[in-house]
Amino acid sequence: MSRILDQRILLLVISFSASVQSTKVLSKWKKCGDPECEKAMSRVQATTDYLGPDCRYLNFKTGEEIIVYSKLSRENENLWTGSKGKDFGYFPRDAVQIEEVLIGEEVEMLTKETDFLCLNEDKFNFE
């Protein structure tokens, strides 16, 4: 009985640490093309293959086109968010080349905790 309880506690700890990692706030600030972050900021092309560390990240191959909707700022300026087809997520800005700028001015705002949740099959993943 004690062994089963120990295994359950270990699984609970592992599950909790995975949950914290996948919902970790990556930056308190972001830049967008409009106050709702709905306007596309730019069109970029992947200069390298990229496979993100978890479901919050956008995976892509060299040459694929990505539409950028926001850029993390201040403490983590290297991550941008964008979409490729129906896939959406974070990716490093140094893995892409800007092809076309679609906005004139960026708006900086606070991020929300929901900015850092996984979005799979049109549902938020609250782990």
Automatic annotation (TrEMBL):
Pfam families linked: SH3_2
Span of domain SH3: 39-101
Signal peptide: 1-22
Cell compartment(s), UniProt: Endoplasmic reticulum membrane
Protein's UniProt keywords contain Signal: yes
Major location (coarse): endoplasmic reticulum
Classification via InterPro entries: cTAGE_MIA/OTOR, SH3-like_dom_sf, SH3_domain
Keywords noted in UniProt: Coiled coil, Endoplasmic reticulum, Glycoprotein, SH3 domain, Signal
Highest taxon listed in the record's lineage: Eukaryota
GO biological process: endoplasmic reticulum to Golgi vesicle-mediated transport; protein secretion; vesicle cargo loading
Bilayer disposition of the protein: Single-pass membrane protein
GO CC annotations on file: endoplasmic reticulum exit site; endoplasmic reticulum membrane
Classification via PANTHER family: MELANOMA INHIBITORY ACTIVITY PROTEIN 2, MELANOMA INHIBITORY ACTIVITY-RELATED
Protein name: MIA2 protein
